[in-house]
Specification:
With 456 residues, the chain is mainly beta. The termini are far apart. The strands form ten sheets. Strands 1-6-8-9-4 form a five-stranded mixed beta sheet, with no helix packed on it. A four-stranded mixed beta sheet has the order 10-15-14-12, with no helix packed on it. The chain contains no helices and 30 strands. The chain has four domains: 125 residues, Immunoglobulin-like (Sandwich); 85 residues, Sandwich (Immunoglobulin-like), CATH 2.60.40; 91 residues, Immunoglobulins (Immunoglobulin-like); 106 residues, Sandwich (Immunoglobulin-like).
Amino acid sequence: MNVPTRFPLVFAMLGMTALVSCTQTDGKLNEDTVPAACTGPVANAGPDQSVSHSTLVTLDGSGSALCDGSAPGYVWTLETVPTDSTIDAGDISLTDPAHPTFTPDSVGAFVFSLVVTDAEGNPSPADLVVINVGAATSKPIADCGGNLTAEVMERVDLNGSRSSDPEGAALTYQWTLSAVPACSALTNGDIYNGTTAHAALVPDCAAVFVVALAVNDGESWSDPAYCSVTVGSGNQAPVADAGSTQALSPCTEHHYELNGYGSYDPEGAPITYQWSLISAPAGSTSSNASFNNATLPNPAFEWDLPGEYSFALQVNDGASTSPPDVVVLTFHDVSENAVPIANAGADETINKEPECETASYVFTCDDCPAEDVTLDGTASDDPVDGDELQFRWTEPTGELTIESPNSATTRVVTPSYPSERNVAIVHSWNVDLAVSDCADTVHDSVTVTYTCTGTY
């Protein structure tokens, strides 16, 4: 096999694996046959592999051997890569020389050669291995068919036939009981045909059961789909409302309050609440213990890592429990915060003409009086995150009186000063507005100009 060398750089380390077999069949070692004579080192680069894009690949040269059974030295060479790959020898991990690893970055064939050497440096013939990389597949999508109602001991048909795979692969099915009421003795084994698209269940008491369906496309499992089976008892079940699914601002506090106040009972009976955590980001230590009180309509939940959290709420009217309502909340790290916008409003202009009078040809003029204007920063905004904003008005000279420095709008008062006949005396002040959310502060300024001319 002639393979063009793309990366001639050779990377080698001495291995610790000792094998006694030295024979080859079709370029690979036959470990079951002991040769009558051994003429030199034999390299075995392992079997060809077919893997998905971005999957860690482990090569296997452990089938290589020396005639004396000692540990060979391994010399791996990356011969060729797909045209759009940037992988080179430096991307290959040789922590275990007999089993190098790498992660392919493109679809196509990666070809490696292996040469093993003995203690005197005598090389074996090269053995090639091809790693064929295909596009990674998307997870299949489970569909459990929707919520159902039934009566006690009535057969309930479960339908997962609307489940699908983006690549059109054939699916396998797994039905389970996700939530079983205390009055029931059912287990997963009581689901009939639980590994098919069409399963069945016979509920044994009046309550709400939750079934879950996961499907597999031969490579990966879907996220579970949940459907409730409400078993009637003559009472109208209450309705749980866990609030709206949403992505929250990076400024959201870690002590976050959920909202189940939209829950109700159709017959007006008082209801009790039960919250639970369904899922959290990988690495999170949050659990049901992270609620301050999971039986409140608005419990506080302590989240620890950014990411997606799923919560379920069920309510009970004293006779039956509602199907669970699920809300998904995505919390963002403060590093993802969007900077707000500061807008201090338009510049303000004051014009005054105090009166002047003369006595013995000497003019005296009234003072320019103290004046006030209203500054308006309400056009400031946080359009991306919608965070609550804090405001701070300042004026560096201290000559202006700022009545409400921490409000979006404020009245500022100028000082009074002498005027002169027919002389326009101009005073100007720059007022700074700082606008802050939980992480960032931005500034804008407005100019207050006071022109005063004495008139006769």
